[in-house]
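From the shared-data thread, chain only:
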Amino acid sequence: MDNIFIECFGGIEDSRIERTKKHLLIDVIALTLFGVMAGAQTFDEIEEFGLGHEEWLKKYLQLPNGIPSHDTINRVLSLLEPEVLQKSFIDWISKVKGYVNENVVAIDGKTIKASHRNSKGLKALHILNAYSCANGLSIGQMKVDGKTNEIAVIPELLEQLALEGAIVTIDAMGCQKELYEPIVDTFRLSNDIKPECYDSEINGDHGRIESRRIEALPVSLIDNQLDLNKWANIQSIVKVAYTNHTVNTVENRYFISTLPYKEVQRIANSIRSHWQIENNLHWVLDVVFREDESRIRDERTAQNFSWFRKMALSLLAKDGTKLSNKRKMLRNCINPENIINSLRRGV
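Structure, as tokens:
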């Protein structure tokens, strides 16, 4: 394997009992990543990928006892600390490709629907994701006990990321509904302060023609109605009017921001960027990687496998071709040397 890959992933602590270590940890990590990049969606399929390409794999991995079984891969992933695996990937990407300074980091949660255990009364695993819009990749994740607990987990995830100078965007789950009516009323009623406005370009995607008008006002207009002490550094309230010209409808959405209301274009760009986590991450995880169908029950294993999907997605997205992700994975399965080329390029 590439020396940088070994440097970043080789230092992960192996908590297995010594007598059970028939396979090297870095071999299991690399095989799992290769398998997922080639379309494997289960541990059995990763094992089959390994058996089908064993001679090729030995060019890059040591494999002292051949291809690990699906049970071994499962057990190894259940012992890995998710935060350590994430950090190793980000370190590797930074050294291989370089890391663009963050502009917008989108935070949003996703449930792996088939991971529930009704017999034990356990809900499906819900993971809070952080997505770098500048780099087009996942930069962190944390599990939540239930979707109603996202608010409590968001600060923990941000602390783990240690961001500096980035705009963080969060959907309505991170807000409080008592803000809604005062903000709506403020934009509805006439004010002495004229809102700063920005009209985005008209888009014609998905069979509809849409335009957006963004208005921003200073938060001081509602500070006499609410206790805003819980919202550190909040500076503006925002209204976005989405006009669907195809059916002639208008939908208004409202936001709060720590950016000054005079920076309305920057606010608008940040709101638009947030949707990358839905379109470029969550949608792809479900449609391409079929994450919603994953029946991995162990929470740590499910977290780690979810991260391998995100690692694979980052590499597939920037492989230099315009093929669909499914075709890229098929191509990787037929000729796995493409995987090594992707790893050497980074993202």
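Residues 3-96+320-345 form one domain.
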